[in-house]
């Protein structure tokens, strides 16, 4: 079983992730008034309707395209040497240091503690009606899975096919996909917890809730 103390200590020692913001397409780069050490915000609002802080502008065929911060973080590097130059798509422009939130730490721990059943190919996925009904009526812990169980419907190219779960027996602890959204191959669909470890996993999450300090 996962050593929660060791993992939490490792995350606390490096409580952030670095986001490399690259040019989404070719164009001439003009940086906004930003510098190393500035704290910028990502998308805001109830529906993320407010765009993130402007980091740079790419001009392509006299058409300016903004490059904005995807999340809140501190700017650790700006490639100012590219100012005024024509850059290719994928060229790194800014590095943003994003401090992990409590929810993100919880997600990291769960993805290490649970068995992740992943999408075999890019498609839309649905739970079978029986499993979906149980989850909507109660919670994910109400659905017990076993190896070989028919659990999903995979929809691709307007065709639907059943998909069996393969993995250890247990209960569905997390559902990672959304209805009517394509999931890439290899993306986790569900996280399964063996019944005998359910209480331990819940205690781990409670510890994160009480020990992790949200960044200001």
TrEMBL record:
Gene for this chain: accB
Domain of life assignment: Bacteria
Protein name according to UniProt: Biotin-carboxy-carrier-protein
């Amino acid at each position: 079983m996962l050593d929660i103390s060791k993992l939490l200590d490792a995350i606390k020692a490096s409580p952030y992730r670095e986001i490399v913001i690259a040019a989404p397409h070719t164009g001439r780069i003009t940086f906004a008034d930003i510098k190393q050490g500035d704290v910028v915000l990502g998308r805001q609002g109830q529906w993320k309707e407010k765009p993130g802080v402007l980091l740079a502008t790419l001009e392509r065929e006299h058409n300016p395209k903004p490059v904005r911060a995807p999340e809140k973080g501190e700017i650790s590097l700006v490639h100012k040497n590219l100012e005024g130059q024509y850059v290719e798509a994928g060229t790194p422009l800014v590095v943003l240091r994003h401090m992990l939130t409590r929810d993100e730490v919880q997600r990291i721990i769960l993805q290490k503690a649970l068995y992740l059943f992943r999408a075999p190919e890019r498609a839309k996925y649905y739970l079978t009606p029986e499993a979906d009904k149980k989850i909507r009526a109660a919670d994910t812990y109400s659905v017990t899975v076993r190896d070989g169980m028919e659990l999903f419907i995979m929809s691709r190219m307007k065709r639907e096919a059943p998909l069996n779960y393969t993995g250890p027996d247990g209960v569905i602890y997390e559902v990672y996909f959304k209805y009517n959204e394509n999931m890439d191959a290899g993306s986790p669909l569900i996280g399964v917890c063996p019944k005998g470890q359910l209480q331990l996993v819940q205690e781990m999450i409670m510890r994160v809730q009480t020990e992790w300090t949200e960044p200001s």
